[in-house]
Predict the 3D structure of the following.
Amino acid sequence: MRDKREEKPIDVEAEEKGLNYVDLDGNVGCMVNGAGLAMATMDLIKQAGGEPANFLDVGGTADAERVEAAFHLILKDPNVKAILINIFGGIVRCDRVALGIIDAYKNIGKIDVPLIVRLQGTNADIAKEMIDNSGLDVHSAIEFQEAADKVKEVLS
């Protein structure tokens, strides 16, 4: 007896795209893989002086299509002033995630808010190099605290 017309359209869209998404009232969009890392990322944002705008778990397959869908969801929120992508590549390789981020960014065109990307795990060094050499306006980080500092920097 579910009536999707009674639900938030963004929640329905996220579910249709296979993304775990919860809309919040903050100013920093989150794109993360894994619920535990998502919760830690939300804490990180708060410690950096921001407020999480969403909970978004892209799951274990952060390919270009999923990343692009996640960007579209996050960017629908006019309160988002920055986006933090925090992915741990245990099963999925970080270089594949980096390629997904680069492809999605190029498909979208211009993203008008600062983007901080932290990729850690398998092939993280290759991924960071790919992000840094992509020509995109992206801040890359390796350490958790470094990502927090970059969030704080772009919000000030």
